[in-house]
Design goal:
Length: 282
């Protein structure tokens, strides 16, 4: 956790504002120089599902959480147009299958995910008429290579980039599949805050960090590649070509469509408070 000494500019708080970010390579451009832009903040790194739980419990004030959380009735609001999205193949969110996709009967879901866990089931049902039984695959699960014994597994984050094909005969890149199906970008995570927190200061810092990060992808790739265990060229290509970091008009359309499909499958309520996703509806 990165911390600093005081909090100013955040009304309603008498302590450091607590900001949660995803502990994956795809987040590095979003938090580039964040400590410089937000010296009155404490940064916590964790997996997406854990950040969502911490935000819900009030242990974080602002967090980069799975986009599906915007539709689950939490008293949240989107605070920045910085996000993690894709406009085609995403590389780091994959379905790996030991059988043909149409024959999947059991599916192990990466416990670090919430949005992708819903997306993969939506895509399997809509594209392949498959509704598998699901189980959990933990990040530290030693059975990672075998998918916990399931026919297929969803894997996200850095380890998806390394995903072995030794025991998997087929795979889907979820970003590519969504794009081919809808023609729209997919938003995996957004910066959200608990309502009542005046996060204008940190929101501005998050946008500045994103802009600085996008301008420094070469340097980020050079620094991050050894940590992730991939070559620098692959790292740069992933950050530059597979990911998109701005919540624009097309991303907003993709989010609304994702909500409709998620609601149809019972993953989220059919209605949501438009204030929750303020920037999206503006």
């Amino acid at each position: 956790m990165w911390e600093c000494e005081s909090v100013t500019g955040f009304r309603g708080l008498d302590r450091k504002v607590r900001v949660g970010a995803v502990s994956y390579l795809n987040t590095r451009p979003l938090i580039h120089r964040f400590a410089e832009f937000a010296p009155d903040a404490a940064l916590v790194l964790d997996v997406p599902s854990r950040l969502a739980a911490l935000l819900s419990a009030g242990e974080l004030d602002v967090a980069l959480v799975p986009s599906i959380e915007a539709f689950r009735g939490h008293d949240y609001m989107v605070v920045s147009d910085a996000c993690i999205a894709c406009r085609g193949p995403v590389l780091s969110v994959k379905l790996l299958s030991r059988v043909p996709i149409s024959e999947i009967r059991t599916l192990a879901l990466d416990t670090g995910s919430r949005t992708s866990a819903a997306l993969v089931r939506i895509l399997l049902r809509a594209r392949f008429d498959v509704s598998p039984d699901v189980c959990s695959l933990h990040v530290s699960d030693e059975a990672f290579e075998s998918g916990g014994g399931a026919d297929a597994m969803l894997v996200i984050g850095d380890r998806a980039i390394h995903a072995s094909r030794r025991v998997y005969s087929d795979q889907l890149d979820l970003g590519e599949e969504w794009w081919g199906w809808t023609g729209l970008p997919f938003v995996f995570a957004m910066w959200m805050a608990r309502r009542g927190i005046d996060a204008k200061g940190v929101a501005a810092a998050l946008m500045r960090a994103r802009d600085a990060g996008v301008a420094a992808l070469d340097a980020i790739a050079s620094s991050a590649a050894p940590d992730v265990g991939i070559d620098e060229g692959t790292c740069l290509s992933y950050l530059r070509d597979n990911l998109h970091f701005t919540l624009g008009a097309e991303e907003r359309k993709g989010l609304r469509l994702f909500h409709r499909h998620a609601a149809r499958h019972g993953f989220v309520p059919a209605e949501y408070d438009p204030r929750t996703i303020g920037l999206i509806e503006s």
